[in-house]
Amino acid sequence: MQQPVVARHVVFSHGKDSGPWGRKISALAEVARSEGYETHSVDYRGLDEARGRVAKLVDFCKELSGDLVLVGSSLGGFVAASSASLLHARGVFLMAPALYMEGLPELRAGVLDCPTTVVHGWRDEVVPYEHSVRFAHTYKAALHLLESDHRLHNQLRVLQYLFEYFLIALDLPAIAFE
């Protein structure tokens, strides 16, 4: 008897001054599709308030069934992290996430309950990389610090590699450590 195929979705959340299909999202969408995921990108343009973006992502994902991976860049990283447990995400991949920034709400306790990877640039002029270090330490997330700025455009190939590894690792059986 053949097992039913479970739908797999990657949902991207862009940053404040970006759009739904910018360079990073387009590059990572190629990777997601090659790994068998349907790709979606929520359009937050004109919606600057973080809570409104979280509500829009949650509403968008209500229509999706199956495995859900959230990917966010900058303010979209905050949105993805804030929504993960609400949406029972299978995994979260964050790029230069706007975490612990003035003017943004505090993250709820236990906001993440799934595998998470954070990628940040050493030379980020918008969000200090130390914020990602703090977040990764708090939530036991994988952390990659790259020689780049906030946009991470000079590291697109590395981002694609890290994202591919992240998606593949989600399908690996858990290893028990004693």
Structure description:
With 178 residues, the protein is an alpha/beta fold. The chain has a single domain, classed as 3-Layer(aba) Sandwich (Rossmann fold), CATH 3.40.50. It is 33% helix and 19% strand. It has a six-stranded parallel β-sheet, sandwiched between helices. β3, α3 (75-83) and β4 form a beta-alpha-beta unit. It starts with 7 loop residues before the first strand and ends in an 8-residue tail after the last helix. The mean pLDDT is 94.
Salient structural properties:
178 residues; alpha/beta; Rossmann fold; six-stranded parallel beta sheet; 19% strand
Structure summary:
This protein has 178 residues and is of the alpha/beta class. The chain is built from five helices and six strands, in the order βαβαβαββαβα.
Q: Helical amount among residues, as a percent range?
A: 25-40%
Using DSSP, what is the number of strands?
Answer: 6
Poorly predicted ranges = none
What is the string of helix and strand elements? Answer: EHEHEHEEHEH
Strand portion:
15-25%
Mean model confidence by pLDDT: 94
Any idea how many domains? 1
CATH superfamily: Alpha/Beta hydrolase fold, catalytic domain
- Please give the count of helices: 5
In the CATH hierarchy, the third-tier topology is known as Rossmann fold
Topology:
Blueprint: E1 8-13, H1 23-34, E2 38-42, H2 50-61, E3 67-73, H3 75-83, E4 91-95, E5 116-121, H4 129-139, E6 142-146, H5 156-170
Parallel strand pairs: 1-2, 1-3, 3-4, 4-5, 5-6
Helix pairs in contact: 1-5, 2-3
